[in-house]
């Protein structure tokens, strides 16, 4: 029998007992459906987290602090350091965490480390209020992270990096409160931001709204461009003794965008040797992603258990099929069909049943998932803009199909080899 | 004399062992010449079906040798054995062994499918075989919908579609009424006469056996003299 005849005959045979094939296909359908949905859920959530990571920092950016040397209780106090011993709030980690303040000397040291492209201090700006027109004054908090920000814009454009104009990007939640009629209305308008300096005097700075951003998982705070940040920082530091104003909680270090994980690890090790600690955004979000991956793994395990149960369904179906067709197998052998081809015939039938179940399962899962995803995106999850809770990638779908057909093939081994081993005469005598 | 197409020497076959041992064949020697029609006659339990199964290489003998076309059958293995079965033998069984829910054409094409003959060619040859048996108009019917005589004619079409040298017929008329049986008998002997296909018929039916050019009588696993059977025939008539 030629391969094409084996496939055609196997497909024909699987339709000969429709009810039995249908029931087996339903069992596989349930497994494939579940597996496709859980995979889609994992891909959807992870895609969302990836886009969120991009919005708080680029992959080529590292946050560097100078940690207080750890002191075990038995060791007693550490020696006093003449320079740079001031502790400041770290700004990251649990409240109350402190790090040693960094000075311009520290920044020079960091810049000298191999692999560091730029090093800039992260300055903390504490504006009093933001105001547009006559709607009143509103509290304003800005995120200390400034470098490498990539935001999802609802209107307008990103900062013009070449420009020295004072620019701001507002979150969508600010738009109506401040008195704009819509996202597009805000772009190009000028807002007023006030800061209080060390002497207690309030000064105002005008900035142009260049874009409106979607809120992210990490809150909705406006982003300032570099010139605006430094202008506000300078205004805020009027009256502070010069020694204190050049102390920073942390610094932003950029490195090559195409750096490998090993190179990043080497850079971190160099920073540690020099007395600093570097954390990439991926490090901070990585834990979160591991939890999601763990949950998806457990869900996938359930789907695979369903598929294993379906595998026994296939074994059962095929055993019955082999039993029913004992005389037919005997006849084919008497007519010179080899055992190998009998095996191929029955295992192809199983793989075809697997193919049917998994294609229908994955297809229906994509259809249902698409609808659920859309409904959730418009309803329950509307606050998380850009989240498609179920995302189906061709790679994942193909993997599910191949996995199911693989399980079907393994399930076919026992019945098919039983059929292949049958002696023609025993099969013909079988009643 | 030409080399016999099938030749067996001191063939024995037993099933089981110890006290449950059953000797189906106790040493049979037989030559079947090319183009001959031979009837293997005996009651049930005489070993006639076992002999046919061994001749058709569906079963292996316990001892003795089978020579097919000058080749020792015990040395044939795997693909050579399968090719020999496919090209040399055709089968007609009492129970038909048709696949019920597939078409007559598909049933007839099965040996050609196994022989890896391309689709167009095998349809042509299967249709030719069906026409020979006046079943062309039934080609797309399901095998299950045919009458007994039609089924046996489909089986004969399947047996001869691959131009075999030998057709083995195991009680070919056993499930048919006498009129239909006679038609099937005529068909088989006509194939033997016109196409020179060697015919090996296993039967307990004396009338069918009488039409064969030679008869082998089996009793308890041994070949017995033909005249003895002639006497039995006389006795039966006399009784």
TrEMBL record, chain A:
MacB-like periplasmic core domain sequence ranges: 21-265
Pfam family, one: FtsX
Membrane-protein topology: Multi-pass membrane protein
Subcellular locations according to the entry: Cell membrane
Highest taxon, organism lineage: Bacteria
UniProt keyword Transmembrane helix, yes or no: yes
GO molecular function: transmembrane transporter activity
Region entry Disordered, spans: 73-101
One GO CC term, this protein: plasma membrane
Biased composition (Low complexity): 81-99
Record-linked InterPro entries: ABC3_permease_C, MacB_PCD, Macrolide_Exporter_MacB
Domain ABC3 transporter permease C-terminal: 301-424
Annotated transmembrane regions: 21-42, 295-322, 343-372, 392-414
UniProtKB keywords: Cell membrane, Membrane, Transmembrane, Transmembrane helix
UniProt similarity note: Belongs to the ABC-4 integral membrane protein family.
Name of the protein in question: Putative ABC transport system permease protein
Organism: Salinibacterium xinjiangense
UniProtKB/TrEMBL annotation, chain B:
Domain ABC transporter: 6-239
InterPro entries: AAA+_ATPase, ABC_transporter-like_ATP-bd, ABC_transporter-like_CS, ABC_transpr_LolD-like, MacB-like_ATP-bd, P-loop_NTPase
SMART domains noted in UniProt: AAA
Keyword Kinase attached: no
Annotated GO CC locations: membrane protein complex; plasma membrane
Keyword list, A-Z: ATP-binding, Nucleotide-binding, Transport
Molecular function in Gene Ontology: ATP binding; ATP hydrolysis activity; transmembrane transporter activity
CDD domains: ABC_MJ0796_LolCDE_FtsE
Top-rank taxon: Bacteria
UniProt entry tagged with the keyword Nucleotide-binding: yes
PANTHER family attached to this UniProt entry: ABC TRANSPORTER ABCH.1 (PTHR24220:SF86), IMPORT ATP-BINDING PROTEIN (PTHR24220)
Annotated protein name in UniProt: Putative ABC transport system ATP-binding protein
Origin species: Salinibacterium xinjiangense
């Amino acid at each position: 029998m030629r391969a094409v005849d084996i496939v055609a005959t196997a497909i024909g045979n699987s339709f000969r007992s429709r009810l039995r094939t249908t029931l087996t296909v339903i069992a596989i359908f349930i497994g494939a459906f579940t597996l496709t949905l859980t995979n889609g859920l994992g891909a959807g959530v992870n895609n969302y987290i990836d886009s969120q990571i991009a919005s708080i920092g680029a992959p080529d950016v590292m946050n560097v602090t100078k940690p207080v040397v750890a002191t075990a209780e038995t060791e007693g106090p550490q020696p006093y350091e003449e320079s740079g011993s001031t502790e400041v709030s770290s700004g990251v980690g649990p409240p109350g965490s402190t790090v040693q303040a960094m000075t311009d000397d520290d920044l020079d040291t960091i810049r000298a480390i191999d692999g560091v492209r730029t090093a800039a201090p992260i300055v903390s700006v504490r504006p009093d209020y933001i105001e547009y027109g006559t709607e009143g004054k509103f509290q304003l908090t800005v995120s200390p992270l400034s470098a490498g920000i990539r935001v999802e814009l609802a209107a307008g454009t990103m900062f013009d990096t070449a420009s020295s104009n004072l620019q701001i990007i507002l979150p969508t939640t600010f738009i109506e409160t401040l008195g704009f009629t819509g996202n597009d209305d805000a772009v190009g308008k000028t807002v007023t931001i006030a800061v209080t300096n060390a002497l207690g005097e309030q000064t105002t700075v005008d900035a142009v709204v260049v874009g409106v951003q979607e809120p992210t998982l990490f809150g909705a705070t406006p982003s300032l461009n570099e010139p605006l940040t430094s202008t506000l920082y300078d205004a805020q530091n009027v009256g502070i003794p010069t020694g204190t104003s050049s102390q920073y909680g942390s610094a932003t270090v950029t490195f090559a965008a195409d750096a490998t994980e090993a190179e990043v690890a080497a850079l971190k090790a160099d920073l540690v040797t020099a007395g600093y600690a570097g954390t990439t955004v991926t490090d901070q979000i990585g834990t979160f992603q591991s939890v999601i991956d763990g949950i998806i793994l457990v869900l996938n395990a359930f789907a695979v258990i369903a598929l294993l149960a379906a595998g026994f369904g296939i074994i059962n179906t095929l055993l019955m099929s082999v039993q029913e067709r004992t005389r037919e197998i005997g006849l084919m052998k008497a007519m010179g069909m080899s055992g190998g081809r009998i095996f191929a015939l029955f295992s192809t039938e199983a793989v075809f049943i697997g193919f049917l179940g998994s294609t229908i399962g994955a297809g229906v899962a994509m259809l249902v998932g698409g609808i659920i995803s859309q409904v959730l995106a418009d309803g329950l999850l509307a606050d998380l803009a850009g989240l498609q809770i179920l995302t189906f990638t061709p790679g994942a779908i193909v993997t599910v199909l191949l996995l199911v057909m693989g399980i079907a093939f393994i399930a076919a081994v026992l019945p098919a080899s039983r059929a292949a081993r049958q002696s023609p005469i025993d099969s013909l005598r079988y009643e | 004399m030409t080399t016999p197409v099938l030749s067996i020497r001191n063939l024995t076959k037993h099933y089981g062992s110890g006290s449950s041992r059953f000797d189906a064949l106790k040493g049979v020697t037989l030559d079947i010449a090319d183009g001959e029609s031979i009837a293997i006659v005996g009651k049930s339990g005489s070993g006639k079906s076992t002999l046919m199964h061994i001749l058709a290489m569906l079963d292996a003998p316990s001892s003795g040798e089978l020579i097919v076309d000058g080749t020792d059958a015990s040395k044939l293995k795997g693909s050579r054995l399968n090719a020999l079965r496919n090209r040399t033998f055709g089968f007609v069984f009492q129970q038909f062994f048709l696949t019920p829910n597939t078409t007559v054409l598909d049933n007839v094409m099965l040996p050609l499918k196994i022989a890896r003959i391309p689709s167009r060619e095998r349809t042509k040859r299967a249709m030719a075989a069906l026409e020979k048996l006046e079943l062309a108009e039934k080609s797309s019917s399901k095998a299950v919908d045919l009458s007994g005589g039609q089924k046996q004619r489909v089986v004969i079409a399947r047996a001869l579609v691959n131009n075999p040298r030998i057709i083995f017929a195991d009680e070919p008329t056993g499930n048919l009424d006498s009129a239909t049986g006679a038609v099937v008998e005529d068909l088989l002997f006509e194939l033997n006469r016109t196409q020179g296909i060697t015919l090996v018929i296993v039967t307990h039916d004396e009338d069918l056996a009488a039409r064969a050019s030679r008869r082998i009588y089996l009793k308890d696993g041994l070949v017995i003299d033909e005249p003895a059977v002639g006497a039995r025939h006389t006795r039966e008539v006399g009784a």
